[in-house]
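name: query_chain
kind: protein
chains: 1
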Amino acid sequence: MLDADENAQAGGRCLENPEIRAVFVCEADGTLVGVITRKTLVREVVAAGLNPTKVILRGIAEPPFFTLEASLSLDDAFHTLEERDLERVPVAEDGRLVGVLSRAVVQRRLAEDEPPALDPDPGSLVL
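structure:
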């Protein structure tokens, strides 16, 4: 997460790591402004011929496509991620970023919470 007052160069430094594909941009109080990606930096800064030390993230951050409310149950959140085919989604509470939900992590968590399957014939021995 980066502060909305940071410059594009700071965003680029975060995105140097190939494992990081997007960075959330927030106001000082945690209010989610949007997200920046490599594509955002190329389009808004490099292709426009702007100085990355002068471009402020607040001005180029793209609003998130979708967010989840923190009050949503884990099961409902997973179904929403599945229905919309989303991998990671910011989680907000009163507009402030409080986390990021990953479909793979939620899927593992829900699987851990499931009770083992019951034997359809409890009188038999299944090997």
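note: Residues 122-127 have pLDDT under 50 and may be disordered.
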